[in-house]
Amino acid sequence: MQSLILSRRDLEFNLYEWLQVQQLTERERYSEHSRETFDAAMETCANIASEEFYPINRLLDDQEPRFDGENVSTPAELKPVLKAFCQAGLIAAGQPFEMGGMQLPCVVEKACFAWFNGASVGAASYPFLTIGNANLLMAHGSAEQIKRYVEPMMSGRFFGTMCLSEPQAGSSLSDIRTRAVRQADGRYRLFGNKMWISGGDQDLSENIVHLVLAKVPDANGELIPGVKGISLFIVPKVLVNADAGLGARNDVVVAGLNHKMGYRGTTNCLLNFGEGKFRPEGEAGAIGELVGEEGQGLSAMFHMMNEARIGVGLGATMLGYTGYLHALDYARHRPQGRLPGGKDPSTPQVPIIRHADVKRMLLAQKAYVEGALGLNLFCANLVDDHATHPEESRRDEAWLMLELLTPIAKSWPSQWCQEANSLAIQVHGGYGYTRDYRVEQFYRDQRLNPIHEGTHGIQALDLLGRKVQMQRGAALQALIARMTDSIARANAAQGEGASQIRAHALAVQHGQKQVLLTLQEVRAHPQPELVLANAAPFLEAFGHLVLGWIWLEQALVAQARLAHDPNDFYRGKLQAAQYFARWELPKIDAWLAVVAQVDDTTSVMQDGWFSA
Amino acid sequence: MQSLILSRRDLEFNLYEWLQVQQLTERERYSEHSRETFDAAMETCANIASEEFYPINRLLDDQEPRFDGENVSTPAELKPVLKAFCQAGLIAAGQPFEMGGMQLPCVVEKACFAWFNGASVGAASYPFLTIGNANLLMAHGSAEQIKRYVEPMMSGRFFGTMCLSEPQAGSSLSDIRTRAVRQADGRYRLFGNKMWISGGDQDLSENIVHLVLAKVPDANGELIPGVKGISLFIVPKVLVNADAGLGARNDVVVAGLNHKMGYRGTTNCLLNFGEGKFRPEGEAGAIGELVGEEGQGLSAMFHMMNEARIGVGLGATMLGYTGYLHALDYARHRPQGRLPGGKDPSTPQVPIIRHADVKRMLLAQKAYVEGALGLNLFCANLVDDHATHPEESRRDEAWLMLELLTPIAKSWPSQWCQEANSLAIQVHGGYGYTRDYRVEQFYRDQRLNPIHEGTHGIQALDLLGRKVQMQRGAALQALIARMTDSIARANAAQGEGASQIRAHALAVQHGQKQVLLTLQEVRAHPQPELVLANAAPFLEAFGHLVLGWIWLEQALVAQARLAHDPNDFYRGKLQAAQYFARWELPKIDAWLAVVAQVDDTTSVMQDGWFSA
């Protein structure tokens, strides 16, 4: 039976036919790997995700975490599922062998983890947050910190969180107020409130390692305004002794749980640090250890941001993907209505997948979710190229491309896989609106993704305000060079599907030209804030262009294979690519018109003009 | 304090400055009315909606209706709220004086009811379904049926439902299997299952009047395939005696409740008719009375469909509208971040409404929801013109326009006010994703609207397959004539805002031309099913054109008023109109490209090509 989480065939197509990740094994870091070891890791994940995570996904939604004023509790079914994940060694999937890891390339690790995102995003958050936390400490922590905190995370004894936002400081991190007061022994005592902390408390792990952004007061006890004063601290829920045993309870407590529309499997907390409920070592204040140097907290945090954002993008992709597969399955089995020309009501009804409008909705979903998966795996592959490509110029290019594509990898699936999830409901009709079918949960879970890890608006500003301009446009040029190469290959295509691919390439070329013209128009504008006011439609346009190119890339592979291996999988890829080229790419011009004209409609709008 | 449900000012603008509904009082049917009586009715509704409905909206979501296998129960807070509605005489708001009604024009009635849709769509459904039921019986029932069933509905003693769908027959009504067996006394016994019955059972009214579509078996006991054999029946939950007292329990029972993502205030049931649990008059079978003639059931039902669909459109509009007002209120009070050029982190944070991207999100919401309200009130006004305009040609024109615009009035708000609800969440950031704020409920409630009363796909087929072609395009010509008139008035505009309005008119003119060219392209296509396969993007394009025109109409009024009365309300209208013209109308070309080329991407797609 086919999985309703993810298509193995599509994953293989992405990894081995398109991205050729088997070639990574030629690099020293991955030399002990082979396609077989990659496949084995993915198969392990597919099995654990299908057998452990998928069955509890609905339950985690129905039985929200509870807080009795003291402790947070999660459904009893969750803990063994996470244990299965940890026992398979997956927390360390990307870590080096010497850390007990599998030393998998990022692209394979993400392909592995996609299964869990699709099976139960609420359950998967706990290990994924832990992995992000561990990666950050691996890069910026001391050897002792790695030993004390990362190693227990690798085995699944400890879980990790990221504590950035505060009630008054969401997107605006420069306004955080949590204080970290330096102690005589070199440690710090933290005081403040942290909001939106996923996994901020739970009853699933022995300990919780909070990574906390806070400010160290200056000599006058004042906090430095802005982001420069931000430092990063490890604040464990329970202090860890020198012998790695657990010590006293630290002064960090849950003030409340957030009750969310979806994503309910993951606890989300308001945490109070240093309010004195616990008095470790005899006094109030959450004991923390500095990571790296004072004032470097944000840069350490943002060092991991590309991967974290690709992670969100992949989570969004997988919610869309599993929704698509559920809708496809439903459409194949639900009889309703008859085809045009066969309206005789005495004949049996046909499965709804035969109706053109249902095919439209499925094809749109396929185009969105498979495109988004391609983009996210492509980006993960760039992480690998940046880290391990033998040629320095390719390492640099990978980094530039990654910087440029990350806002798209995060925002595009968050938006368009939400549309996919909406279409999955629509395919189900009334049934899709009930909690008897899974698609309504996907739709609710998905809605978080344009908000966390940098809102949609933040991604847009990052793209138009920084990324397309960085290094005098070098990142953009790198992408354009890749696109131009794809277009050239498309133009040289022969055989079945060649004319379709050439038309697709033409649409990408047009979009590319329009994006470049638009950037030229706005570059020298005397009021850059007016240009940035239209960052959102630029993000839309650029995102669609990138996806149009990802689909061109996949179509090129499918078209070439089709000549030797005429099968339906490749035809489906070509058709989805064509859908994207014909139905989606024309939208680019509409978005760019606003940007190119430096339209001032939103800038000029005043508070008092909104409905009186 | 301003309402968070609906803007009184906007409602007045629509009714009195744009649609000039005060002129309706010159018609005989409304001659006892005046602007004062209209305003009084609306003010009553605003008060009851704000004081009774709005406060329980969240509660109705939290405390879903329950079914113990025997009875359905709703939260105790709901009944007195509905009582307040009924006691104000609002069920009969549109009925003639002699029925105890207020004899309000449809457009004023809809304006009144908008308050309840915005305050609590889940609570409002019960009286609105009852009104739809009563209207149908007023048009097609016998005098005795009106007396027996409609009068108790008018006073709120009985509530009504519509029973169309069955588990195997949702959009495909020709496949219903409920049997209505003629009895010797002229009544019928019904046997079958009805699905998705809103208000199908409840503990709120003394009785429930089900209007049921069923088929009368032929002489051989066979059901006639197709829609021609469908008849309409009154099936009360409790039989009504000749003396109007309640008699025996009829053989219709709840088989189960549907548990929905949203819209939870309204019960939604699977009903079993004639399974024998109750044996009225000694035997199994739900006793029903025929409405009108046998075989005329669907046409009676569809007679009311325009109004029902405008009702759904208005419900969708109001969910978007209240979400917008909540987001606006939040944005005015939430400080976060600083403006470009004022990034000094030691300065206070600004209310987020000052950020361009937040203004974009609010302006988009304003454009969607106020435009949708305008369209729905315009359509309600057409209902009045069709019924009571003194000139026959205008009555005919109104009917044509109504037929054409109904699919848009239903589908456009269902789609774009969902986008507005999504933006309302986005303006709230993480808070918008929690159940502590109301916007997440609106988003869940809204998702029903593209499904019920004819799915989005059904509306698209209705528009492209029937409405634009009806009477050799007469409906379309009527709309084009109106648009052309608006464009001419825009071109003659003088003074502040005139150039903006002319640009807007140009964009509408372009859209209109493209729509007509597209229809010309596809009209003679040898495979009409290929054309209809792209009905969905045509619906998008046509909907945006219509809304672009509605906004042009509103901008014309605002621009003219601005010359004499320079106030912010009119500036806001002009700015929202400009937003729609510049940001939204350019999308039309992208959708039409697919239609005009008779793109076969979805038609050609095959089941087996979807991911293998």
What's the overall geometry of chain A? Answer: globular
SS-derived structural category of chain A: alpha+beta
Residue stretches of chain A low in confidence (pLDDT < 50, at least 5 long) are none
> What oligomeric assembly is this protein in?
homodimer
What is the count of DSSP helices of chain A, taking H or I runs of 4+ residues? 19
**Beta-strand content estimate of chain A:** 5-15%
The biggest sheet of chain A, with number of strands, parallel, antiparallel or mixed sense and barrel status, is:
8 strands, mixed
Task: Tell me how many strands of chain A there are.
Answer: 12
Mean pLDDT of chain A: 96
- The span between the termini of chain A is 58 Å
Largest interface: A-B, 112 and 112 residues
Report the C-alpha radius of gyration of chain A, rounded.
25 Å
In helices, the fraction of residues of chain A equals 40-55%
Task: Please outline the helices and strands.
The structure is a homodimer of 612-residue chains.
Chain A lengths: L7 H11 L16 H28 L3 E2 L4 E2 L4 H10 L18 H14 L1 H20 L2 H12 L3 E6 L15 E4 L5 E11 L8 E9 L14 E7 L1 E3 L5 E4 L2 E6 L10 E6 L12 E6 L5 H7 L1 H29 L22 H33 L3 H37 L10 H8 L9 H12 L2 H22 L6 H26 L4 H5 L2 H30 L3 H17 L2 H10 L4 H4 L8
Parallel strand pairs in A: 3-6
Antiparallel strand pairs in A: 1-2, 4-5, 5-11, 5-12, 6-7, 7-12, 8-9, 10-11
Helix pairs in contact in A: 2-3, 2-4, 2-5, 3-5, 4-5, 4-8, 4-9, 5-6, 8-9, 8-10, 8-11, 9-10, 9-16, 9-17, 10-11, 10-12, 10-13, 10-16, 12-16, 13-14, 13-16, 14-16, 14-17, 14-18, 16-17, 16-18
